DNA sequence: TGAAATGTTGGGGCG
DNA sequence: ACGCCCCAACATTTC
């Protein structure tokens, strides 16, 4: 907390994965200064993985919202491009400030970069202040009884939840001041974050309202609707029980603390049963767990968490990868998921598991290929959740599904999309099939296919692999791991 | 946060 | 009435 001697000073406030006004510790601290210069840097340094295309689209929209909010508060957002170390130093010099504030990021390259920056800027004479970021807990502070980090989700979450005390809400500034010598901002439109040719973002625009206001609308509508029945309904891609908060969380437009507070306030008021709430909180817990893993295993996005997988006999990606990416595998539930992803920048969680299992087990393609595709196409792509969940499905991750746990895409489809509503939405060329065959068109008699206007291999692909054969092939590949252990 | 194979049980048809 | 077979339903084991 700055004392009164700071009153005449200007603070540089660096926004990153915290594109919000509410519950923003660094912003709140900055508001105590006489002037604030908020900045967002399009970074050119290469240690961090650069955003995928879908997240860039989201970022553009979210920055528009943040920029508007900051204008209203009186301290316009400065957009600038470069190496953060250089940019922050130059900006600070221009605004005659020695104070630089930001909210911390946890784990991996981002956290390493932040620590290095804080050290260098401090050495240069700046007063760098960092604040808790967008997690319920500090991942480094959670230890097992024997002082190690958790590798199993259930005890991890038990430890976090039992120790969880939501912090007091952070005061939100009503007004900020800009210094007289405000630096010039670059133009957001010139960052080319939006796709132009082709413009593939139509489905994203129809689906999402990026930005802090959109995040809170989404939370409200979830608490008024989807949370009720969440415990079982969350597994149904044909339903509306998921929160769809993930891209808002990834951008930092809303925080888990805000969500948990809202759940507390809503409990007993028709916003889901205790079980519904507990299951939803646990899903947020998986996000925390992913960051926890990333902190202790910073290369989880490139190296197998379980090194027995280092010699796993993956296939060359070849044409199968393209068929998977395009949603042309011939398995309707898989294709529906991949097309939902392409069209909307998001995929239902249950279906993510199905398509990831299909890629890594039916096609024997390395999880990294799938992780890369998700990274580029998901609006919620998260540097912790995305790799750790891919490794979880592949079997190489922490607390992972055993390799031999191979999803049957037909059974999964029939179980979680029993009326074929989801499949018909995203795979319209087979929509006229009766329910009986909607998850396995190749078993439909010729006259049924004909009535539905389907010619397999022409209007819709034949399955690119046979389930039974692929399953057996995957299981024998798994033998190489058992031998290695 | 599976699926498939294998094992067990018990009711009903039938000689 | 009884044994036998079939098989659905459920449970257990294995991958």
Can you walk through the features of this model?
The chain has 485 residues and is an alpha/beta fold. It is built from 20 helices and five strands. The protein has a five-stranded parallel sheet with strand order 3-2-1-4-5. Strand 1, helix 1 and strand 2 form a beta-alpha-beta unit. The model is unreliable at 1-6 (pLDDT under 50). The protein binds a DNA duplex (15 and 15 nucleotides) through helix 14 and helix 20.
| Helical amount | 40-55%
pLDDT below 50 for ≥5 consecutive residues: which ranges? 1-6
Please count the helical segments: 20
Mean pLDDT: 93
* Total number of strands: 5
> How does the major sheet shape up?
5 strands, parallel
Helix/sheet category:
alpha/beta
Strand content: 5-15%
Q: What is the distance, rounded to the nearest whole angstrom, between the alpha carbons of the first and last residues?
A: 53 Å
Overall form: globular
Radius of gyration: 24 Å
Pattern of helices and strands:
EHEHEHEHEHHHHHHHHHHHHHHHH
Lateral strand order in the biggest sheet? 3-2-1-4-5
Task: Put the structure in a nutshell.
The chain is built from 20 helices and 5 strands.
Descriptors:
disordered N terminus; 6% strand; globular; alpha/beta; DNA-binding; 485 residues
Topology:
Elements: E1 10-15, H1 25-30, E2 35-43, H2 53-73, E3 78-82, H3 84-94, E4 99-103, H4 108-123, E5 127-131, H5 153-162, H6 202-207, H7 212-226, H8 230-233, H9 246-251, H10 256-266, H11 274-296, H12 318-326, H13 332-344, H14 349-362, H15 367-377, H16 385-394, H17 409-416, H18 421-426, H19 446-451, H20 467-484
Parallel strand pairs: 1-2, 1-4, 2-3, 4-5
The chain binds a DNA duplex (15 and 15 nucleotides) through residues 235, 349-350, 353, 357, 392-393, 401-408, 411-412, 471, 475, 478.
């Amino acid at each position: 907390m700055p004392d009164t001697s700071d009153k005449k000073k200007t603070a540089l406030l660096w926004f990153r994965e915290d594109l919000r006004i509410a519950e923003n510790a660094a912003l709140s601290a900055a508001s105590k200064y006489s002037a604030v210069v908020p900045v967002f840097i399009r970074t050119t340094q290469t240690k961090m993985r650069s955003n995928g295309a879908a997240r860039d689209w989201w970022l553009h929209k979210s920055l528009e919202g943040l920029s508007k909010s900051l204008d209203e508060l009186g301290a316009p957002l400065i957009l600038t491009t470069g190496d953060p170390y250089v940019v922050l130093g130059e900006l600070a010099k221009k605004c005659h400030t020695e104070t630089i504030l930001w909210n911390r990021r946890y784990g991996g390259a981002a956290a390493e970069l932040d620590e290095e920056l804080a050290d260098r800027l401090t050495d240069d004479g700046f007063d760098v202040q960092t604040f808790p970021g967008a997690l319920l807990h500090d991942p480094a502070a959670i230890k097992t009884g024997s002082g190690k980090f958790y590798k199993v989700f259930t005890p991890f979450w038990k430890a976090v939840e039992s120790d969880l005390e939501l912090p007091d809400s952070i005061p939100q500034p009503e007004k900020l001041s800009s210094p007289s010598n405000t630096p010039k901002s670059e133009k957001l439109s010139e960052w080319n974050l939006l796709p132009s040719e082709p413009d593939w973002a139509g489905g994203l625009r129809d689906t999402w309202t990026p930005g802090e206001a959109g995040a809170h609308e989404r939370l409200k509508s979830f608490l008024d609707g989807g949370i009720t029945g969440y415990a079982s309904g969350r597994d149904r891609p044909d339903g509306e029980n998921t929160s769809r908060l993930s891209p808002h969380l990834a951008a930092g437009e809303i925080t888990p603390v805000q969500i948990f507070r809202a759940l507390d306030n809503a409990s007993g008021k028709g916003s889901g049963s205790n079980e519904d709430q507990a299951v939803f909180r646990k899903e947020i817990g998986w996000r925390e767990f992913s960051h926890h893993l990333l902190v202790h295993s910073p290369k989880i996005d490139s190296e197998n968490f379980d090194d027995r997988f280092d010699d796993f006999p993956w296939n060359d990606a070849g044409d199968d990868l393209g068929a998977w990416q395009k949603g042309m595998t011939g398995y309707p539930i898989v294709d529906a998921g991949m097309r939902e992803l392409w069209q909307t920048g998001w995929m239902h969680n249950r279906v993510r598991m199905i398509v990831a299992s299909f890629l890594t087990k039916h096609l024997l393609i390395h999880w990294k290929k799938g992780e890369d595709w998700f990274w580029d196409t998901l609006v919620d792509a998260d540097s912790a959740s995305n790799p750790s969940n891919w490794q979880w499905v592949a079997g190489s991750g922490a607390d992972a599904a055993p390799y031999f746990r191979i999803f049957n895409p037909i059974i999964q489809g029939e179980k979680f999309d029993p009326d074929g509503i989801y499949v018909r939405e995203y795979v319209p060329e087979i929509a006229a099939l009766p329910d009986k065959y909607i998850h396995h068109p190749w078993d439909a008699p010729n006259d049924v296919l004909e009535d539905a206007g389907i010619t397999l291999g022409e209007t819709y692909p034949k399955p690119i692999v046979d389930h039974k054969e692929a399953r057996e092939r995957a299981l024998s590949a798994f033998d190489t791991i058992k031998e290695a252990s």
